[in-house]
Amino acid sequence: MRWLIGSCILTAIVLLSCQNPFSPASVDPSGVRPIVRQTEPDSVLHNFRYAYEHNDIDIYEKCLDPGFTFRYIDQNLAGEIETVEIPRDGPSGDLERTRRLFTFFDEIKLETWLPIPYGSEQVGNETWKIYRVFFQLSVRDVDGDFGGESFEAFGVAVFKFRQSTSDRLWRIVFWEDQSTI
Description:
single chain; alpha+beta; Nuclear Transport Factor 2, Chain: A; 6-stranded mixed sheet; 4 helices; 26% helix; 40% strand
């Protein structure tokens, strides 16, 4: 009996000594596990959320297909409602706009993030998967570098995903923001 207790204590010591206190946790305080392989649209959306909440433009860029387009509805200077489409690249492209968003706001949270598969769409010989994501986004300039601004948006975003033929990973090819501010 004494040897059993001794071996249990020794086993516990060995297991505890295997933990590296300098190794980062596999889940951060927000409960979001860092980057996962984009083998399905769910994993792309996971990485997308991670990129937003950690202001990580590199991870965000990996979520986007080279042919990516972002669409939203806006009110122009004349007060008319218009549809705006933003390409992935370029000086006014989505990557540059998102880079500025990440620079401007210190804290970005997706309080609600509920992805729901919404079918598929045949585009040429490809099948794109479609998801609707119900979300609540809040952004804050915590350090006051840009006047302490904060905003919230909530609504639905429609994402379409295409699987790459070269690496078989999924990426966002189309994002339509249907949120309200």
